[in-house]
Specification:
heterodimer, A: 109 residues, mainly beta, six-stranded mixed beta sheet, four-stranded antiparallel beta sheet, 47% strand, B: 119 residues, seven-stranded mixed beta sheet, 0% helix
Chain lengths: 109, 119
């Protein structure tokens, strides 16, 4: 089973700041099948990034993903008020289970 | 645009079972698999298992092996997740989600079903 570690646990920033979130895998993620999700309180998760770097439909271009192998990054270039949320990475490349990371909370400084 | 509509909240006794449904609007999931994910109060997302629709076969997380059964009825575009031998630690919101044919990631999610296990 691939274990995902996310850092930091909490990121305290202001609107307009740049956010850099990290996701590290315990072994290489097959075909860079790494996704990022955003979750707000009381809501289901929303897909932001798939295949490590492709934006899902209707996702603003201030969200970008990068990385390969075991190290991946989600960058939010300029935080908007609606971007304060919890972000999860998930690997779905090798055989199941398709594990999630523990999440990074982006909150207002 | 597909919508996944889940069944309503449940309150169950320890030791009992719960079956949650997930129905795709429009008559089809439009995907290869349906996955179930749960989230305990204040906690992160936990992958439980998935069903490959064309084969009707399922894979489960080791943690839930023997307690969870995921099925699907393509004639009604409905997937099910049944969890047995419930414990208080199973209190959580349970989500279904489908994988996109283009993305292979979980691009549409149900609204979630709260299952409360309490004596």
């Amino acid at each position: 089973e691939i274990v995902l570690t996310q850092s930091p646990g909490t990121l305290s920033l202001s609107p307009g700041d740049r956010a850099t979130l990290s996701c590290r895998a315990s072994q290489s993620v097959s075909s860079n099948y790494l996704a990022w999700y955003q979750q707000k309180p009381g809501q289901a998760p929303r897909l932001l990034i798939y295949g490590a770097s492709d934006r899902a439909i209707d996702i603003p271009d201030r969200f970008s993903g990068s990385g390969s192998g075991t190290d991946f990054t989600l960058t939010i270039s300029r935080l908007e008020p609606e971007d304060f949320a919890v972000y999860y990475c998930q690997q779905y490349g090798s055989s199941p289970p398709f594990t999630f990371g523990p999440g990074t909370k982006v909150d207002v400084k | 645009q597909v919508q996944l509509v889940q069944s309503g909240a449940e309150v169950k006794k320890p030791g009992s079972s719960v079956k949650v449904s997930c129905k795709a609007s429009g008559g089809t999931f439009g995907s290869n698999t349906v996955t179930w994910v749960r989230q305990a109060p204040g906690q992160g997302l936990e992958w439980m298992g998935r069903i490959i629709l064309i084969f009707g076969s399922a894979n489960y997380a080791q943690k839930f092996q023997g307690r969870v059964t995921i099925t699907a009825d393509e004639s009604t575009s409905t997937a099910y997740m049944e969890l047995s031998s419930l414990k208080s630690e199973d209190t959580a919101v349970y989500y279904c989600a489908r994988d996109g044919l283009k993305t292979s990631a979980l691009d549409y999610w149900g609204q979630g079903t709260l299952v409360t296990v309490s004596s």
